[in-house]
Design brief:
Blueprint (H helix, E strand, L loop, with lengths): L3 E9 L2 H8 L1 H4 L5 E3 L6 E11 H15 L5 E11 L8 E6 L3 H15 L14 E7 L1 H5 L10 E10 L1 E10 L2 E11 L2
Antiparallel strand pairs: 1-3, 1-8, 2-6, 4-5, 4-7, 5-6, 8-9
């Protein structure tokens, strides 16, 4: 049986951005949520799921080729809010950002190139950049009276330049998933 790797392509954040975003755990300590460690904060561009060694090699080649066709660009994160498109209960808390033409083109180019070589499910939802900060514990959320559920909404102003994309592997540990960079590819 071939070894499988749980792979995604992401934009990693600078340490100061990670530290700032991780600080929101202190703002809402009463939330029934599992907060993501600062080291794991990122923006997922394409989630591939479990792929083979061969597909991982092809993914790295494709990521490099696509990165070389794209220039550096900025991402603006402007709010921290419940994520998951207004579902009740919410599934997560995230830092959301403004859509950008450059980000959309990068994502589209990655998906189109990967679909030719790697077997994965394409996400058809509209894409806006977001960083998952915490995952809501649904059964605990439902035990809180609706009027006592914390309001999560804060305007932020975080602007950063995307310089690279990373092929990442999610490794499951007893403490939760740990994300490891397989390869990093610079934009031009």
């Amino acid at each position: 049986m071939q070894k499988k790797h749980r792979i995604f392509i992401a934009i990693n954040l600078a340490p100061d951005v990670k530290k700032f975003l991780a600080g929101f755990e202190k703002k809402w300590p009463e939330l029934p949520a599992k907060w993501i460690g600062a080291d794991n904060l990122h923006i997922t561009l394409v989630f591939l799921g479990d792929i083979t060694d061969e597909e991982l090699g092809q993914t790295c080649v494709i990521a490099k080729e696509v990165a070389q066709k794209h220039a550096l660009f900025d991402i603006h994160l402007n709010k921290v809010t419940y994520g998951s498109d207004g579902k009740i209960p919410p599934r997560m808390i995230w830092a959301g950002g403004e859509k950008s033409k450059e980000l959309s083109l990068l994502k589209r180019d990655l998906e189109e190139a990967l679909l030719e070589k790697v077997n994965f499910l394409l996400d058809h939802k509209a894409f806006a950049p977001h960083v998952t900060l915490a995952r809501i514990k649904e059964w605990e959320w439902r035990r809180i009276e609706p009027e006592e559920r914390p309001e999560v909404h804060e305007d932020i102003d975080v602007l950063f330049t995307v310089e690279s994309i990373d092929v990442m592997e999610s490794k499951l540990t007893r403490q939760g998933p740990r994300y490891v960079i397989v390869e990093s590819h610079q934009l031009q």
